[in-house]
Amino acid sequence: MTTACKVCGNRVTEFLDLGRQPLSDAFLTPSDIEREFFYRLAVGHCESCTMVQLLEEVPRERMFHHDYPYYSSGSTTMRRHFEQTAQHFLETELTGPDPFAVEIGCNDGIMLKTISKAGVRHLGFEPSGGVAEVARSHGVNVRTDFFEEATAVEVRDEHGPADVIYAANTICHIPYLDSIFRGVDALLSDGGVFVFEDPYLGDIVRKTSFDQIYDEHFFFFTARSVRAAAERFGFELVDAQRLPVHGGEVRYTIARAGARQPSPAVDALLAEEADQRLTAPETLRSFAGAVATVRDDLVRLLRSLRAEGRRVVGYGATAKSATVTNFCGIDAELVSFVCDSTPAKQGRLTPGKHIPVKPPGAFSDPYPDYAVLFAWNHAEEIIAKEQGFREAGGRWILYVPTVRIV
């Protein structure tokens, strides 16, 4: 199947079909099941600008709303990451006489809280009302709205130009990149930077982490595709920093063309992508084959454990887990429940496959024989916290980059 690229308008060719999928963060009550929304989750790559993207767009209001259940501050690792990010901006870009920082998709205010405590002018855009209210309770200034050209112009008129526009795990969610860049153009100061960090296609391909692909992740960036997108709107990619969070991300720094000297890291990452032929059709087809192998191996293992009478549960009712359970056909017969620390998810059913979600206390009452670690990107933190599970004889099931028991 082919479609038009959301960035340059040229042809996008499909390379992976993950089938009929639900909204990844729509945790259900039994009465919701009849009205559950589904779409086809397929991925393609643009033959011109190389941008990898979904072929079907889910309306943003279905994904980001008042009851959106993800909270950035839920992980110790991510709290530390965002505090360090804020401190970096305070020491580098926000040192002028009256600096102004804007965050696109500020969630519960985990990054801007540090900016606010430093007394720096700031504003977060957050369309999901529930998490926006939490951010306000932390002293963060929030506009409950989507960032786009029109809203950016309004902020510029009211607050003046921004020295930093930042986004974490947000820009990849937004199909209308043209309006984002026009909004950045309207709001960013002449010497300012637009900084965003998102899952990196190179890590997704290398790790076969296909669960990074779901409704909220519309684009899968590379240095090459980000540079091409930036140049279309008069900007330049001036830095690209690899990050270990969320299974592998890159932080891209964009500035107005000619405003800053690009870091050697940009050319280094571009060269690495070229050597790996990262967006070549044969590379992406090979990735799709590896995804099918993971699916088959995981289902085979779970069916074998069920036949042996073993008790298996899931750990982490993540958005990513919706892709895995629905693509692999994993239901409550194979994974009896999923435990999660987010109150808004507890007592509900997972999207699509309707596996019960229980609070963390259920994990040890009693411990299962095996646990599928859906929140694998926090594996080190979780495994260290759940020593009792290992001591009781429990074993973890991981599926990135391959299916294995640890």
Please provide a written account of the structure:
With 406 residues, the protein is α/β, with parallel strands linked by helices. 33% of the residues lie in helices and 23% in strands. The chain has 13 helices and 18 strands. Strands 7-6-5-8-9-12-11 form a seven-stranded mixed sheet. The protein has a six-stranded mixed sheet with strand order 15-14-13-16-17-18. It is globular, with a radius of gyration of 21 Å. The relative contact order is 0.12.
Averaging pLDDT over every residue, what do you get?
94
- What number of structural domains do the residues give? 2
**Low-confidence runs of at least 5 consecutive residues:** none
User: What strand order characterises the main sheet?
Assistant: 7-6-5-8-9-12-11
* Residue fraction in strands: 15-25%
Largest sheet: 7 strands, mixed
Radius of gyration, in angstroms, nearest whole number: 21 Å
Count the E strands: 18
Computed structural class? alpha/beta
Quaternary organization: single chain
The second-level CATH architecture of the largest domain is 3-Layer(aba) Sandwich
Q: Which fold does the CATH topology of the largest domain refer to? A: Rossmann fold
CATH homologous superfamily grouping of the largest domain: Vaccinia Virus protein VP39
Helix content: 25-40%
How far do the termini sit from each other?
39 Å
CATH class of the largest domain: Alpha Beta
